Amino acid sequence: MTIYRVPTLEQLIGLLNLAVKDITISRQGLHNRISKNAVTFFEFMINKAIDISIPIFYDINLLQQFNQVLIVDSTSFQLPEELADVFTGCGGSGSEAGIKIQFGYDLKNSKFFYLFQNGKTPDNHAKNSFIDKVEANDIIIRDLGYFVINTFNEIDKKNAYFLSRLKSDIKVYKKDDNNELIELDLVEYIKDMKVDIVELEDVYLNVKGIIIKTRLILEKAPKEILQKRLRKINRNNKKKVLQLHKEQNACKVYLCIYQTPLQKSYQ
90 and 186, same structural domain? Predict the structure, then answer.
């Protein structure tokens, strides 16, 4: 971190000249050093920084059954207006130029991958699934912005696994004695929860004819998170629309395809 959020070359030179004694570098000199070798060096340093900064709080034995543990997220920022032809931004009150970086990290093997795209590209875009990186016995973990049923289906076909939050407008089903899909009323189910964490095996998603067998994890949210969610609902003045999901907001709801029971994984 520096005192500059997005430093210019001149500001970077000033910082370098302050930090490194007996060495001065010009703007052009720094510009000339931004090369493929520099990119390789910074990729190596990012990888090391992630290794050092990730706290060792998980049981590594839990991950042994997976070949890769892929964590994907994105970051975006505005660019100078003259770059709008290269990277399109969202515009409006911001710049017409912007860039988004999709970043993936293999927690188990300490490797990363990334994708540059227009700043206005949504996270649920097909390319952002990184299906080409997923192989059998891998697990990929992403937040709610990447929720796409087609992607989950492709991961399942590869005999791989995913962990995702469940969108509140997505219905979940169980099968009855006649092997028919029956909608599960999550709101009523959450009302009757007697423990903090519940795991529901053999549930199904059915979105536009794509049916996926999965499992569901319901975890009660802390009171402060619940209050924050309810305040957001009130601010948006959507009480009538979201009243059905009020009880669901009392829980963190996770959707996952997983090889073994998860009881130990979330303790």
Answer: no
CA distances from 221 to 137, 171, 228, 234, 253 (A): 30, 20, 11, 18, 9
Q: Each residue of 87-145: pLDDT tens digit?
A: 999 878 888 999 999 999 998 888 889 999 999 999 998 888 899 999 999 999 999 89
Domain extent, residue 192, equals 166-267
Look at residues 163, 193, 213 and tell me which one is the last residue of a structural domain. 163
26 inside domain:
no
Same domain for 173 and 230? Answer: yes
Contacts 24+ apart (CB under 8 A), 205-212: 205/149, 205/152, 205/170, 205/171, 205/172, 205/173, 205/255, 206/171, 206/173, 206/181, 207/149, 207/170, 208/149, 210/149, 210/150, 210/153, 211/181, 212/149, 212/152, 212/153, 212/156, 212/257
Distance CA 220, CA 157 (A): 31
pTM: 0.76
